[in-house]
Amino acid sequence: MECEQMATPAKLTILNTRPSPMGEELQQRLIPQYSSYHFPTISNAPITLSSDVPLKQWLLDKSLAWIFVSRPTAVYFRQLLLQHDLTEFSPAGGIFAIGESTKAELQRFVCNPEIKIITPKHSNSESFLTLKELDAFQSFVQVKGKDGREVIGNALIQQGKQYYPLELYQRQLISYSHSEVCTWQQCDLVLATSIDIAKGILTNLSEQLSNDEIQLLLHKINWVVLSERIKQFLMDNMVKEQHIFICEQSDNSSIINTINLISK
Length: 264
Hints:
The chain is of the alpha/beta class and 264 residues long. The chain contains 11 helices and 11 strands. 37% of the residues lie in helices and 20% in strands. It is elongated, with a radius of gyration of 20 Å. The two termini are 35 Å apart.
């Protein structure tokens, strides 16, 4: 079944696919300057950890650093600490955060002012792996979602580092109805802040729209992504390079700045 023709909004129309809570925060900031639909394409569900995770041993290891790749990793890690009767995060080793929003979330429970949270210049795995501060540590715990950010683990292992993935949640695809996905055809710009989110967008399109409708949509819309990896994924799925714009930072202010530049 094809979509009914809808009137085109006068404002630039954005498909905001950021999950909670950043998606709602971004939505409030996009309106009234832009028209925006909020359709997160993934949600997170907690994973039950085995009882043999050596959390307290890791916290005492000066040669070990902690890696947080997104805001949800910090949120779920705080819940883990509380389950172990720990109200703050004071590791003997280092803390790395990808993105200012991740750092800000960590600062809510890293109470020691002497602990420095190190962030890369750009909010992506590639920029993180260039940090000179990584050389000071022999072991790394990467707090992550299930199967996410494997590029970091693979790179650290190749460098001879001890690598421990700490998977605290798993991503689940959110599926939308035909009528809901039809509203996406009004959009001029789509936000995809991870490969999983991009997969969710394309999966919903393929399940609910005809091939002709998908091709028309992909021909007209622009995409805002956070890394070359997401850009390459979209190009591998028939999105033209000239339609993809990279925002180097993952916070909502930087995303809005990128949208403002595109809309000029």
